[in-house]
Amino acid sequence: MKAKHDTEAAMESNGTESDLIPLLQATQERLGFVPEAAIRQISDALGISESQAFGVASFYSMFRFTEPGRCTVKVCMGTACHVRGSKNILDEFRRRLKIEPDQTTPDKLFSLETVNCLGACALGPIATFDGESHGLMKIKMVEELIEAIRAKFTAEVEERA
Q1: Whether 80 and 129 share a structural domain
Q2: Domain extent at residue 38
Q3: How are strands ordered across the β-sheet holding 127-129?
Q4: Are 9 and 55 contained in the same domain?
Q5: Rounded distance, CA 83 to CA 61, Å?
Q6: Could you tell me the CA-to-CA distances from 108 to 29, 69, 112 in Å, in that order?
Q7: Residues 124 and 146 in one domain
Q8: Between the CA of residue 49 and those of 28, 43, 150, what are the distances in Å?
Q9: Would you give the distance in Å from CA 141 to the centre of its chain?
Q10: Are residues 80 and 133 in the same domain?
Q11: Same-domain status, 138 and 87
Q12: Residue 90 in contact with residue 75, Cβ under 8 Å?
């Protein structure tokens, strides 16, 4: 498993608790998430409990514990977006994708996340697809965007075949 490299990195470091966050970051950068096996290996290498390592990792919203989909959908739930209906947009993504925030579709195509602010309050409600912003979202736009992403990835698969 790729997480083995994290243990090797921990052994090469001072092996102290201060190495925990950099090792978690390196794991996520390499794998796209922090799997349970990596937490186990890192905690063993640093001489701390798995629950302590997971407690630190789960405190920070930047760490994911499930493999992300190819397309990450982020829905802004900040105040400006909220008052403009972002909850309805999120509910439509949940309904269409059949997943909850912080989950990935079974086909590994989509991950759904909520964020506190995307910094484009005047365009709320706003969602991003792999960093591409879609402002002034309407419920009907959700299906269109999902289908466009599905079509894009289907075309990519067909090109490779």
Answers
A1: yes
A2: 4-59
A3: 103-104, 110-115, 71-76, 127-129, 132-134
A4: yes
A5: 23
A6: 18, 4, 11
A7: yes
A8: 20, 6, 41
A9: 22
A10: yes
A11: yes
A12: yes
